[in-house]
Amino acid sequence: SQQGEEDPQALSIQEGENATMNCSYKTSINNLQWYRQNSGRGLVHLILIRSNEREKHSGRLRVTLDTSKKSSSLLITASRAADTASYFCATDPGSGGSNYKLTFGKGTLLTVNP
Amino acid sequence: SAVISQKPSRDICQRGTSLTIQCQVDSQVTMMFWYRQQPGQSLTLIATANQGSEATYESGFVIDKFPISRPNLTFSTLTVSNMSPEDSSIYLCSTRQGGTDTQYFGPGTRLTVL
User: Fold this and answer.
1) What is the largest CA-CA distance in chain A?
2) 3-class DSSP assignment, residue B86
3) Any chain A CB within 8 A of the CB of B110?
4) Is there a contact between B42 and A88 if contact means CB atoms under 8 Å apart?
5) Can the peptide bond before residue B85 be classed as cis, meaning omega within 30 degrees of 0?
6) pLDDT digits (tens, 9 = 90+) for A31-89
């Protein structure tokens, strides 16, 4: 069953603007990972945030995690046309019965207009 | 980061035939995963393949339809058997990088069944 749910499902912005995507999940996690997918190709790993972390940065990316609300957000600042892609969050339960199996959300399709 | 390659990158197959997808990792890894992404959808885990043991399949996926081999620590294959148009999807293999929780994905195999 789907664990993560992203919103919005689609987002269209102008180049230079910021884009924020949200992800909610239902069960406890070890970490949450964000991925980008261009035009149905492979997934590119963007950032991993652990359950004991609240915020992480990587270049123009900023990820937050609120485990009390079971939600995460991905912010892309100063967006570029090349950022146009689908973005997915994936929850990782860690070891144990679920054995590191990622559960993906439905994704947000981001379009950055030049 | 782990570098993962897949072959073929895409294929068009006839109904009733089978296709074997290969996944090669540039380092030895314990766990490999196979995912399916149906058109316009998110990723769904098919099975987990650990070297030296039988693959573990998720609900809705069976070995007769998706046999998996894992002959060594850098390689795995997924066969899609007796294909129907409903099997048209992108199939992706994935692995966790040793010592971290980061999961990396191959470039995917885009399968179209006529």
Assistant:
1) 46
2) helix
3) yes
4) yes
5) no
6) 999 999 998 788 999 999 999 999 999 999 999 999 999 999 999 999 999 999 999 99
